[in-house]
C-alpha cells in the first residue's frame, strides 16, 4: 500500500490494461469493449502495459484494430518499470482475464483510487466485490460510463482486505 500513491479521481476516458497478451487474458473481449466505448465517444483510450506473447493473438489484434479503425484509441506502451507512475493518468483498470489467482494489477490500481472493471472469472466473487464485476461487453461499458466513481471506496477495499499486515 505504501508503494502506491492514492489520490481522489473522477470518471474519465483513460483505461488501463496490465498483462501479457495471451489467450487467458481474453484480449478479444478487451477489443470488443474498447470498440463499443469508442462508438459512444472517440475520447476513450485503452493503454496497455504489456506485450504480445502469443503470435496468433497479435495477428488477430492488429487485424481488428485496423479493421475497426481503433489505432488512435489502443496504445501499447510495453512493460512498465514503474507501474505506480504509469497508472497515474488512468481512470479505470480493466481486467478481462478468464482465470486469475488474485490480480495484483487490479489491487495496485485500486490503491491508487482507480475504478476496477473486472470480468467475472471463476472464484472472482471470493476476491472482489460483485459490484466491480461484469459478465458482458454491455455491462463493462455501463460500469465505465456510469456516474458511480468512488476512489476512497476502491482504496479502502484493498486496504481493509489485503493489506500486508492483514495477510501476514
Mean model confidence by pLDDT: 96
Distance between the termini: 14 Å
Global morphology: globular
Strand order of the largest sheet: 3-2-1-4-5-6
Strand content: 5-15%
Q: What level of helicity do the residues show?
A: 40-55%
Total number of helices: 8
**Helix-strand sequence:** EHEHEHEHEHEHHH
Structure classification: alpha/beta
Q: How many distinct beta strands?
A: 6
The low-confidence runs, each spanning 5 or more residues with pLDDT under 50, are: none
Radius of gyration, whole Å: 15 Å
Main sheet overview = 6 strands, parallel
Short note summarizing the structure:
It contains 8 helices and 6 strands, in the order E-H-E-H-E-H-E-H-E-H-E-H-H-H. With 168 residues, it is an alpha/beta fold.
Protein model, in words:
The protein contains eight helices and six strands. Strands 3-2-1-4-5-6 form a six-stranded parallel β-sheet, sandwiched between helices. The chain is α/β, with parallel strands linked by helices. It has helices spanning 27-40, 55-67, 83-86, 104-111, 124-127, 137-145, 151-162, 164-167, and strands at 14-18, 45-49, 74-76, 92-95, 115-119, 133-134. The longest helix has 14 residues, at 27-40. The model has no long low-confidence stretch (mean pLDDT 96).
SSE arrangement:
Blueprint: E1 14-18, H1 27-40, E2 45-49, H2 55-67, E3 74-76, H3 83-86, E4 92-95, H4 104-111, E5 115-119, H5 124-127, E6 133-134, H6 137-145, H7 151-162, H8 164-167
Amino acid at each position: 500500500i505504501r508503494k502506491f500513491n492514492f489520490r481522489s479521481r473522477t470518471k474519465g476516458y483513460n483505461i488501463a490494461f496490465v498483462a501479457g497478451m495471451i489467450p487467458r487474458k481474453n484480449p478479444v473481449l478487451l477489443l470488443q469493449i474498447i470498440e463499443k466505448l469508442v462508438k459512444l465517444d472517440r475520447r476513450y483510450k485503452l493503454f496497455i502495459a504489456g506485450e504480445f506473447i502469443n503470435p496468433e493473438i497479435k495477428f488477430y489484434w492488429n487485424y481488428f484494430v485496423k479493421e475497426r479503425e481503433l489505432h488512435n484509441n489502443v496504445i501499447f506502451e510495453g512493460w512498465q518499470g514503474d507501474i505506480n507512475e504509469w497508472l497515474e493518468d488512468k481512470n479505470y483498470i480493466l481486467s478481462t482475464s478468464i482465470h486469475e489467482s488474485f490480480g495484483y494489477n487490479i489491487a495496485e490500481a485500486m490503491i491508487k483510487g482507480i475504478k476496477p472493471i473486472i470480468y467475472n472469472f471463476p472464484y472472482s466473487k471470493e476476491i472482489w466485490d460483485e459490484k466491480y464485476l461484469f459478465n458482458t461487453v454491455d455491462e463493462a461499458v455501463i460500469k465505465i460510463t456510469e456516474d458511480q466513481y468512488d476512489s476512497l471506496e476502491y482504496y479502502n477495499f484493498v486496504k481493509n482486505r489485503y493489506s500486508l499486515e492483514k495477510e501476514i
